Amino acid sequence: MTAHPFLPWLGGIILALSMGSASLQAATRYGEDFVRLGGDWPETRAWRAPGERVREVGPQHREQLRELEARLQASEQAAGPYAPALAEALNDLGRLYREAGELDQSLRAYRRALHVVRINQGLYSEGQLPLLRQVLEVQGLRGDWQALDERYDYYFRALSAQAGEDLEAVLEYLRWQRQALRLGFDKREDQRLLRLLGLNADLLQSGAALDAPAHWALLESQLHNLYLLQAWQAPVVMQRDTGLRSAALAGVPMELSAREQRLINLQRSAVNEGTVLLEQFLARPDLGDVELRARAHLALADWEQWNGRRGALERYASLVAWLDSQQREDLRRAWFAEPVELPDNGVFWRPGDAESAAVLADYSVSPEGRARGVDTRAGDEAARGYAIHLYRQLLSTRFRPAFGDAGAPQMVEGLERRYRVSARR
Predict the structure, then answer these.
(1) Which residue from 386, 381, 372, 395 is spatially nearest to 419, judged by alpha carbons?
(2) Is 247's pLDDT higher than 80?
(3) Given the DSSP bridges, would you call strands 236-239 and 356-365 parallel, antiparallel or unpaired?
(4) pLDDT tens-digit readout, 193-245
(5) Fold of the domain built from segment(s) 43-164
(6) Which residues contact 412 (CB under 8 A, 6 or more apart)?
(7) Per residue in 296-311, pLDDT tens?
(8) pLDDT of residue 244
(9) CB of 418 within 8 A of CB of 320?
(10) d(C-alpha 305, C-alpha 26), whole Å
């Protein structure tokens, strides 16, 4: 048989795509462009689509706005435009406008209040933090992601300047950085991802003496970062001698930035790093909280299952047996009664208004956590492409398998689930 002249070239591309990036060896990124209807995670709750928090207001609310604006004008004429008392009144004005759904006016009022506080208290004063929070929330409601991103960096610097950092605010900042990566609205993906990984690692190291729940919150955040690292794809470069190849495979560091080389190196050890972080946490002598220990054990098994590690099923079985010994039927039922798409944390969820369609899927899930006998169907012919896409995605999705009463993974047949499938594919 005569070899086709394009086969060596095509084979090189296939080899590059299969070996060039760990992300291409991983499972489907559940939540990115398909998600079960009703799916929700803490990871996705930081910033919502525009208008979600706006409510109806009546004539009394409008009268309050007029009265407050009149008092502000009088106070400004009497005490000047930077009188400290103006900040509180402007904050109230911003709140009233926000409740009325007038987000531009709300943002203007909060910014004026922020300016007054900075003039009177300093650029990184603690008093400005609540106002910065309001500015961030209104920008999120407006869907002004770029402005929110720029303001968030300043907010984090101001927060870090205080004697004691607010852990929840720090975690929210880290969540926002992940959302910014998912939104993909700038060209600094490699820089942002590296900075995020490094910052979270530093926080873990500096917080080594934290109690177990606080330590877990930072660790879980870093685990989410590692999921994104696994999904990061090395850029593709052109070479004269080999044609189109993955930069990670080509071995030509001169074609990559230092950041890209660093990410490739981090990606190679990401699975082990996640496993080690979780195992070290589980070894804490003060980890007496049964549910927290169970959640960490589940996160470890899910991490290894999504990354195709052979020992994941044994970890699941060990956790199920331990839950039985602790008489935590509630957790066993919540986590193992039916198969669960992975990763079950929302780390790949992306907000926005991309076109989408609801698609019904029927399938079974094997004891190993893979979909079998998949059938997908949309409500009309126009959405057929979405159904085809979901079919392919489910076949490559890794599931947390269901466990039966005997404590072993089991085949689950006849599942019927509805998904929201996005046009981003």
Answers:
(1) 386
(2) no
(3) unpaired
(4) 999 999 999 999 988 889 999 999 999 999 999 999 999 987 765 554 555 55
(5) 1.25.40
(6) 338, 339, 364, 365, 401, 402
(7) 999 999 999 999 999 9
(8) 55
(9) no
(10) 10
Look up residue 368 and give its two tokens: 């190993």
Torsion, Cα of 348, 352, 358, 360 (10° steps) = 0
Among candidate residues 302, 297, 296, 298, the one with its CA nearest the CA of residue 230: 302
Residue 402's contacts (CB-CB under 8 Å, 6 or more residues apart) are 336, 337, 338, 339, 365, 409, 410, 412
Long-range pairs of 263-266 with CB within 8 A, sequence gap ≥ 24: 263/190, 263/193, 263/194, 263/229, 263/232, 263/234, 264/21, 264/234, 266/194, 266/197, 266/229
**Per-residue pLDDT tens digits for 335-347:** 999 999 999 999 9
- Sign of the dihedral defined by the CA atoms of residues 103, 104, 105, 108, in that order: positive
- Residue where the block lists tokens 């930069």: 247
Q: Where in the chain is the domain with CATH 1.25.40.10?
A: 43-164
Instruction: Give per-residue pLDDT as tens, 271-292.
Output: 999 999 999 999 999 999 999 9
Q: Which two tokens stand for residue 35?
A: 């998600």
CA distance linking residue 381 with residue 384, whole number of Å: 5
Q: What's the rounded Cα separation, in Å, for the pair 75 and 91?
A: 14
- pLDDT at residue number 410: 98
